[in-house]
């Protein structure tokens, strides 16, 4: 088991969440691929999108429904600072995950998190479990609690 997957598994267990972690037969680098592997609709996929705060130089996490896109201007307003592209080094350093497997939980460092309200319309959602081949399911309310995420309108 990879270190990233272990961190996600531990974060879920420490929170008392009995999440189903699934190793997929193919990589799940896109929401469409993840939905096909999970057997759900694409909007049940919780995509982790990382931006870099231009003032803070910190990663900011936006978790959006699989079919939605983050609107950079709205995201900057929600975050309270101009956001730019986060490079692979920033993502790896601040979250501990590589692009394509960024989980919403189990980060190396605390990260400000904003959540797409669309995800709350489902009983169960799926997210990356720290690798491009692992996903896990949980209730949207558990996602909000685990990430200390704030519901916000940042899609367009």
TrEMBL record:
Domain YbaK/aminoacyl-tRNA synthetase-associated: 27-145
Pfam families: tRNA_edit
GO molecular function annotations of the record: aminoacyl-tRNA deacylase activity
InterPro entries in the record: YbaK/aa-tRNA-synt-asso_dom_sf (IPR036754), YbaK/aa-tRNA-synth-assoc-dom (IPR007214)
Name recorded for this polypeptide: Prolyl-tRNA editing enzyme YbaK/EbsC (Cys-tRNA(Pro) deacylase)
């Amino acid at each position: 088991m990879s270190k990233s997957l272990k961190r996600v598994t531990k974060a879920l267990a420490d929170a008392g969440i009995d999440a189903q972690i699934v190793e997929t037969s193919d990589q799940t680098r896109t929401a469409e691929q993840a939905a096909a592997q999970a057997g759900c609709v694409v909007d049940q996929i919780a995509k982790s999108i990382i931006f870099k705060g231009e003032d803070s130089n910190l990663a900011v996490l936006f978790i959006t429904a699989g079919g939605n896109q983050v609107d950079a201007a709205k995201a900057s307003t929600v975050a309270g600072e101009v956001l730019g592209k986060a490079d692979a080094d920033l993502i790896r350093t601040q979250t501990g995950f590589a692009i394509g497997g960024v989980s919403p939980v189990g980060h190396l460092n605390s990260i400000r998190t904003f959540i797409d309200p669309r995800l709350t319309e489902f009983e169960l959602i799926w997210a990356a479990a720290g690798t491009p081949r692992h996903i896990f399911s949980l209730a949207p309310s558990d996602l909000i609690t685990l990430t200390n995420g704030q519901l916000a309108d940042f899609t367009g």
